[in-house]
Design brief:
- The strands form 4 sheets. A 5-stranded parallel sheet has the order 3-2-1-7-16, with helices on one face. Strands 8-15-9-10-11 form a 5-stranded parallel sheet, with helices on one face.
- Helix 1 packs parallel to helix 11.
- The radius of gyration is 23 Å and the shape is globular.
- By secondary structure, the chain is of the alpha/beta class.
- Helices cover 24% and strands 19% of the residues.
Length: 432
Amino acid sequence: MSLTLTVPPRPEVDRRAGLPVAVIGAGPVGLAAAAHLIERGLPVVVFEAGDAAGAAVREWGHTRLFSPWRYVVDSAAQRLLEAEGWTAPDAEGLPTGDELVDRYLEPLARTAALASVVHYRTRVEAVSRQGMDRTRSAGRAAAPFTLRLRTNDGVTDATARAVIDTSGTTSSPHSLLASGLAPEGDLGDRVTTALPDVRGRDRVRFIGRRVLVVGAGHSAANTLIALAALADEDPATRVSWAVRTEATARLAADAADDLAARGRLGTAVHRLVVDGRVEQIASFEIDDVRLSDAGVRVSGRRAGEAFAVAVDVIVNATGFRPDLSMLAEIRLGLDEIVEAPRALAPLIDPNVHSCGSVPPYGVAELTHPEPDFYLAGMKSYGRAPTFLLLTGYEQVRSIAAELAGDRVAARQVDLVLPETGVCTTDAGSCCA
């Protein structure tokens, strides 16, 4: 006789019950995510590395957006603000980055709903599952997330039921080299990131110098226009503009654009080239950048032939890529080329889609193999340059609905973007 013992399966206990949703970054999309989660009755905590809301926006605060106010204010955020007496700016006005922070992001972060949940000077260094690296599967979905935090007081861990990473990409620009590799040597202060304050705090770095702007997007255009104005003040300032391609599709002159200010950028920068105020170096693939006795030597191939130029300062306006180092223990499902979520990547491929031709999408396209983990905002677009704030706001509305269990609302996506036919190259950003 044999005896068989049967043990009923032990139900998996969800150890995440009662924990907040963690949002990484207190920029426009991060604060919008918090607003939507709070509207859904979900507890939330926001971790911001900077000293205040919109710290990354402050880095380019002198720059005027080409999107009017009606496209840069989130609906749930507006409801929170208006409940406390906030008056929306003129819907058709074009804010600068500083105005976006002063008149929208900082007041939003100070609302009663958000003031106690946003933690500043708190950098998320890593995200994982409690007690689990990325190789362990059993019980994974029920395990809380663990976030490794660095503050002025040291390092600590926090737990969360879900994570929305809206930390952006502006801290990790593309390389100047066509290969994507970093230049071999340290270039020190000879290279600046995109959108320096040419006529303000950074003026001394550019006036009277030879400046090379690298990139074919709107950040490059804004910088070229500012440098040309600086050269009017001091003719010793010389401005060159390097692009990989023969033409600059995204900065086409007289482009038809639902965002008039965006269309005018192309017209303005091409006029600078025609008038000889900016020297355009087209079809230039940069292979090497290094210090020399004459300043910085930039060498490579122009239309297949060896070419080099010597300058004093380089503005790297080649766009951005996501820094995924803090997500090493998270199971991401990213497209191999664009580095966006696999279902999203075909919808935003910059070789196919403009800012306005991206179809509506939501949580279904943002899902990863890691349950309840999401990339949102610019970081969700990987290396694609076509992100608009409107897109990020619809992303986090959909994610919040999903986390609240409202799968119908999460998948009822309604998004109409301002159309342009010129946002189709491989560098730069459409968000500012």
